[in-house]
């Protein structure tokens, strides 16, 4: 973001925004498990606005961004007050999987763009060394995170290695970039830092946004609305995934209050001219997962030859539902804004951040429903699981369903690479009514029940959203049955084939 905004948004702005959100949501939100911070999508949004204003008057950018935050806050409050968050119960995997694949793709693209900076000015040696560090960092985090699913060491060791994969990899590969010897010939580009608790560029935290010409204040309104549209989907889906059915939560959600609270963070972040924070995917569900108490049980089975097979069965016993972990994150972020820790951050090569983009991006892709369906279609028939529900529908229906999802993904990725990128939230949100209005006309109820399902499946989540909605394919079938019954009644016969008033045996 710093590279694409002329250095306006730097490390201090990112840290302050993340700290502001973490303190607010850890103390005041209904669901503090949802991790809130800066996403790659808000970075995309901010530098797209920067490029748009380059075509007009870039000196307006600081004041203009404040008004985008103010308008966004107003739209957030309207959304929360009128219970519009209730419509998140209509979100299905059709749109959430498409969004997840889009987010993962954007993160990987940004990781590649970040690596490309290391090749500037024909610094080929720096570029390839940075690419090596980024790839090795990615593999390190990936393997450590999956340590919890193995049978290596004991349960406590596996949990520590899995939960602290990022810090372990960051410490090691940052140190690696400072090794003497041949690596000393590489001039790694490191994280640029500035004075503690000061903006990156020479300005005050609060700019004179009230001096922005009136016409530009109203021009900022649609940008604020698009920001709200992005947060409406992104933040609430983050909250949904952090409270998925696989986590045995007991405390209820509070989508309307939390979105109202997000409006206040938008207002304060906007006035301070820092990136607006919102819910993080996939960090939010990862946070809940790290607080989940898993129990490993050794199970045995005996083959026909009498050989005993032992495998590990893991199930979630409980979740430590508290505010402390999120609040500690906030304190840690504030600590990194101090002078000594900023110096430490300045030791990190930028290649580390490319690795973070790769890991987070792949995390959104690897277990994505779209990818799983594609792999199902590619798998040899004799190795398919007999219990897989996808076997009950035709492959042509699966391909047809994937076509619409991949079309939505391709459109959002394509528009994000242009100056029209601020319009991508419209495409994402438009997938919700498309699923409810168009898809039931293209697929049968049985096909949709197998290929798609509600994203919000946890009972305590649905309660806060007004309960489980009736799916459109269910509504269509119910109305069809009612019409059939009315038609039979009007013909003077009961649904069972007997004349009206006659007794059936």
Characterise the protein shown here.
The chain has 505 residues and is mainly alpha-helical. The protein has 20 helices and four strands. It has helices spanning 11-28, 40-54, 61-81, 93-117, 124-145, 155-163, 165-176, 214-242, 255-271, 283-290, 324-336, 339-345, 351-366, 369-378, 395-416, 424-437, 439-442, 445-451, 459-464, 472-490, and strands at 36-37, 278-279, 292-302, 308-319. Strands 1-2 form a two-stranded antiparallel ribbon. Strands 3-4 form a two-stranded antiparallel ribbon. Strand 3 (292-302) and strand 4 form a beta hairpin. Helix 1 runs antiparallel to helix 11 (324-336), helix 4 crosses helix 15 and helix 14 packs across helix 15 (395-416). The protein is globular. The model has no long low-confidence stretch (mean pLDDT 89).
Cα separation of the termini: 76 Å
Mean pLDDT: 89
Number of helices: 20
Widest sheet: strand order? 1-2
Order of helices and strands: HEHHHHHHHHEHEEHHHHHHHHHH
Q: What does the largest sheet look like?
A: 2 strands, antiparallel
Taking Cα atoms only, what radius of gyration do you get, to the nearest Å?
26 Å
Structural class by secondary-structure content: mainly alpha
Please report the total strand number as a whole number. 4
Low-pLDDT windows of residues: none
Beta fraction: 5-15%
Characterize the overall form. globular
Helical coverage, percent range: 55-70%
């Amino acid at each position: 973001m710093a590279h694409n905004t002329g250095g306006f948004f730097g490390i201090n702005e990112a840290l302050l925004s993340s700290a502001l959100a973490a303190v607010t949501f850890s103390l005041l939100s209904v669901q503090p498990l949802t991790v809130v911070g800066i996403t790659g999508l808000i970075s995309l949004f901010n530098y797209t606005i920067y490029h748009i204003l380059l075509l007009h008057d870039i000196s307006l950018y600081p004041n203009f961004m404040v008004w985008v935050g103010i308008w966004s806050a107003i739209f957030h409050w309207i959304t929360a007050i009128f219970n519009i968050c209730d419509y998140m119960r209509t979100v299905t995997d059709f749109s959430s999987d498409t969004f997840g694949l889009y987010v993962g793709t954007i993160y990987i693209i940004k990781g590649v763009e970040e690596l490309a900076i290391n090749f500037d000015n024909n610094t080929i040696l720096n570029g390839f060394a940075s690419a090596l560090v980024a790839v090795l960092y990615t593999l390190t985090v990936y393997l450590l995170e999956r340590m919890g699913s193995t049978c290596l060491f004991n349960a406590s060791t596996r949990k520590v290695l899995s939960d602290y994969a990022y810090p372990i990899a960051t410490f090691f590969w940052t140190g690696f970039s400072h090794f003497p010897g041949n690596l000393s010939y590489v001039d790694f580009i490191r994280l640029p830092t500035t004075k503690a608790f000061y903006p990156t560029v020479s300005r005050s935290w609060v700019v004179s946004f009230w001096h922005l010409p009136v016409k530009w204040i109203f021009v900022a309104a649609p940008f604020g609305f698009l920001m709200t549209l992005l947060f409406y989907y992104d933040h609430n889906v983050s909250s949904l995934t952090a409270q998925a059915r696989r986590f045995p939560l007991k405390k209820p959600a509070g989508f309307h209050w939390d979105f109202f609270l997000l409006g206040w963070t938008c207002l304060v972040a906007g006035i301070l001219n820092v990136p607006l924070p919102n819910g993080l995917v996939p960090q939010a569900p990862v946070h809940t997962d790290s607080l989940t108490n898993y129990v490993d049980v050794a199970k045995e089975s005996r083959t026909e030859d009498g050989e005993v097979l032992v495998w590990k069965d893991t199930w979630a016993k409980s979740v430590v539902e508290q505010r402390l972990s999120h609040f500690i994150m906030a304190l840690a972020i504030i600590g990194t804004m101090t002078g000594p820790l900023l110096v430490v951050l300045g030791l990190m090569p930028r290649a580390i951040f490319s690795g973070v983009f790769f890991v987070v991006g792949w995390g959104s892709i690897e277990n994505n429903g779209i990818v799983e369906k594609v792999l199902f279609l590619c798998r040899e028939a004799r190795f398919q699981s007999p219990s897989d529900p996808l076997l009950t529908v035709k492959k042509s229906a699966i391909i047809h369903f994937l076509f619409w999802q991949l079309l939505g993904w391709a459109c959002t990725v394509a528009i994000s690479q242009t100056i029209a990128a601020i319009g991508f939230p419209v495409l994402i949100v438009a997938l919700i009514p498309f699923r409810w209005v168009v898809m039931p006309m293209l697929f049968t109820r049985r096909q949709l029940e197998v290929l798609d399902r509600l994203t919000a499946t946890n009972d305590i989540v649905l309660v806060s959203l007004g309960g489980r909605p009736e799916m459109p394919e269910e509504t269509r079938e119910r109305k069809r049955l009612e019409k059939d019954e009315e038609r039979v009644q009007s013909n003077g016969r009961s649904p069972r084939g007997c004349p009206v008033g006659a007794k059936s045996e």
